[in-house]
Specification:
The protein is α+β, with helices and mostly antiparallel strands. It has one domain: 3-Layer(aba) Sandwich (Glutaredoxin), CATH 3.40.30. Helices cover 37% and strands 16% of the residues. A two-stranded parallel sheet has the order 1-2. Strand 3 and strand 4 form a beta hairpin. It is globular, with a radius of gyration of 16 Å.
């Protein structure tokens, strides 16, 4: 989680990149104390039913990179506690952004 916080902090001034954290724990009361204890300052949405039944997540942590059109471009399972995880995620975000089609101006 500290690496996720670091990644979020590096993108905090980038409106084109957003992070969403879903908690799959059945006891959402555990989240706030954990976040405080580890000095984490990002939003966590309690969503166990959504995670297990709708997204069909079978491993934690799961990471997705979704483009501006809502299309899942990359999926990853697991976590590397080294700095390589942050670098890998930044590279993956850049890859998805560079592959995105140029925005068309609105029709008049």
């Amino acid at each position: 989680m500290p690496r996720l916080q670091k990644l979020i902090d590096q993108y905090k001034n980038r409106p084109d990149v957003q992070f969403v954290s879903l908690n799959a724990d059945e006891n959402p009361g555990l989240v706030a104390p954990f976040m405080k204890e580890h000095q984490l300052a990002f939003t966590v949405i309690p969503a166990p039913t959504y995670v297990w039944q709708t997204l069909k997540v079978f491993g934690i942590p799961s990471n997705w990179i979704i483009d501006a059109n809502g299309v899942v471009r990359l999926k990853g399972l697991g976590y590397d506690a080294s700095e390589k995880w942050v670098t890998g995620m930044k590279d993956a975000i850049a890859k998805v952004q560079s592959a995105a089609p140029a925005s068309n101006p609105p029709a008049k």
